[in-house]
Design goal:
- The protein is mainly alpha-helical and 327 residues long.
- The chain has a single domain, classed as Up-down Bundle (Ferritin), CATH 1.20.1260.10.
- Helices cover 65% and strands 2% of the residues.
- The protein has a two-stranded antiparallel sheet.
- Helix 2 packs antiparallel against helix 4, helix 6 runs antiparallel to helix 7 and helix 6 crosses helix 10.
- The structure holds benzoyl coenzyme A.
- The site of benzoyl coenzyme A has 27 residues, from helix 2, helix 6 and helix 9.
- Pfam families: PaaA_PaaC.
- It comes from Pelagimonas phthalicica.
- One of its GO terms (molecular function) is phenylacetyl-CoA 1,2-epoxidase activity.
C-alpha cells in the first residue's frame, strides 16, 4: 500500500524519474490521489505532517475557548460556544482519520504531539483573558482558518480535500458567531468597547502569523504547491485575509493595531507593518505563554482516556471471539 510497487523487499524505496513524472502528470491534470494509489514518499510524508498538525491544531484549539464555556455571559452564548468547541473536536477526528489513510496511526501522531516533534498552530499558545477574546477568536482566528482552508478543499489528496469541505462549512458558522459577539461588544458600553479593542490588539498579530513564515522562508511551500497540496502561498493568503478584514474592522469602529496599515492602490491591497518573526519562532519552538499548559492538558486527556481505549479494544476482541465461536 501507499507507495506500492516502489518499496523493495529490503524496505528501500525506488522512485524513478518516470514514476515521478507520471505522478506529477496526474496532479497537473487535477486528478485526486487516493489512499491506495502509488505516491512519492515525500508527498505522503508532507501530507502526514500537514494533516497531523492540522488535526492537532483543532484539538488543542478546543482548550482556549473551552476555558470560557462555564463563564459565557448567557445561555445562548454558552450553547453556541459549546457547539463550536464540539465541532472542533469533530474536525480533529476527521483529520486524524484522513491522516490514517496514509499509514500512520492516531497513537503515533499523538505521541509526536506530546513529545513536541509534531507542531500545532502557534495561535493556540496565547491565553484567553476576557470574554471578548472569544469573539475575536471567532472573527480573526476562524476567519484566518477559513482563508487557509477553502483552498484545501481542492487539495490533490482526496481524503483531505473531502474532510475540508465539511470543516469549512462549520468554520463559517464559527466565524459568524465570533463576529456577532464582537459586533455586540463594539456597540456596547465604553467598558465593552475597551475590552474588545484590547482583545483585538492582542490577537491581530498572532492571527497574521497563523499563515506561516514569509514565502522566502517557507521550507515546504514550493514543493507543496507543485503537488497541489497548497494552492496559494503563505503571503498570498495572509494578504487576502488582511484585505477582507480591514473593512470589517472599519465597520465595527475598531482599530487594527498596525500604524503602517494602508491601502496600496497599485497592488489593490493593504500594505502592513513588519511581523515579529522572532516571536513567531519562539512560540512555534514551544516557548509561548501557554505552550506548556496546552501540552500538559493534552497529555492528561490522553492518559485519562487510556482505560477507554483499552476497554473498547477488549470489547472488540470479545465480540470477535463470540462471533468466531458461533460460526
Ligand atoms: N504555527 O514551510 P512552511 C484551526 C511551521 S486553525 C505553527 O510554510 P507549510 C482552528 C511549519 O509546520 C490552524 N507552526 O510550512 C481554528 C513548518 O514546520 P515543520 C490549523 C507553523 O506546512 C479555530 C515550518 O513552520 N490550520 O485549526 O508549507 C479554532 C515552516 O513553514 C505555523 C492548519 O493547520 C504556525 N502558524 O505551511 C480551532 C491548516 N506556520 O512542519 C481550530 C493546514 C508554519 O517543517 N496547514 N509553521 O516542522 C497549512 O496550511 C500549512 O501547514 C501552513 C504552513 C500554512 C500552516
Amino acid at each position: 500500500m501507499y507507495s506500492q510497487g516502489l518499496i523493495g523487499a529490503d524496505g528501500s524505496t525506488e522512485e524513478t524519474q518516470d514514476f515521478l513524472d507520471a505522478f506529477q502528470k496526474r496532479i497537473d491534470a487535477e486528478e485526486k490521489i487516493e489512499p491506495n494509489d502509488a505516491m512519492p514518499e515525500g508527498y505522503r510524508k508532507t501530507l502526514v505532517r500537514q494533516i497531523g498538525q492540522h488535526a492537532h491544531s483543532e484539538i488543542v484549539g478546543m482548550l482556549p475557548e473551552g476555558n470560557w464555556i462555564t463563564r459565557a455571559p448567557s445561555l445562548r452564548r454558552k450553547a453556541a460556544l459549546l457547539a463550536k468547541v464540539q465541532d472542533e473536536g469533530g474536525h480533529g477526528l476527521y483529520l486524524y482519520s484522513a491522516a490514517e489513510t496514509l499509514g500512520v496511526s492516531r497513537e503515533q501522531m499523538t505521541e509526536e504531539l506530546l513529545s513536541g516533534k509534531a507542531k500545532y498552530s502557534s495561535i493556540f499558545n496565547y491565553p484567553t483573558l476576557s470574554w471578548a477574546d472569544i469573539g475575536i477568536i471567532g472573527w480573526l482566528v476562524d476567519g484566518a482558518a477559513i482563508m487557509n482552508q477553502i483552498p484545501l478543499c481542492r487539495c490533490s489528496y482526496g481524503p483531505y480535500a473531502r474532510a475540508m469541505i465539511r470543516v469549512c462549512k462549520e468554520e463559517s458558522f464559527h466565524q459568524r458567531q465570533g463576529y456577532e459577539i464582537v459586533m455586540y461588544l463594539a456597540r456596547g458600553t465604553e467598558a465593552q468597547r475597551e475590552m474588545v479593542q484590547d482583545a483585538l490588539n492582542r490577537w491581530w498579530w498572532p492571527s497574521l502569523m497563523m499563515f506561516g513564515p514569509h514565502d522566502a522562508d517557507s521550507a515546504h511551500s514550493e514543493q507543496s504547491m507543485e503537488w497541489k497540496i497548497k494552492r496559494f502561498s503563505n503571503d498570498a493568503l495572509r494578504q487576502k485575509f488582511i484585505d477582507a478584514t480591514v473593512p470589517q474592522a472599519e465597520f465595527l469602529g475598531l482599530t487594527l493595531p498596525d500604524p503602517d496599515l494602508k491601502w496600496n492602490a497599485e497592488k489593490g491591497g493593504y500594505d502592513h507593518g513588519d511581523i515579529d518573526w522572532e516571536e513567531f519562532w519562539r512560540v512555534v519552538k514551544g516557548n509561548g505563554v501557554m505552550n506548556r499548559d496546552r501540552i500538559k492538558a493534552r497529555k492528561k486527556a490522553w492518559d485519562d482516556g487510556a482505560w477507554v481505549r483499552e476497554a473498547a479494544l477488549a470489547h472488540a476482541d470479545k465480540r470477535a471471539a463470540r462471533k468466531q465461536a458461533a460460526e
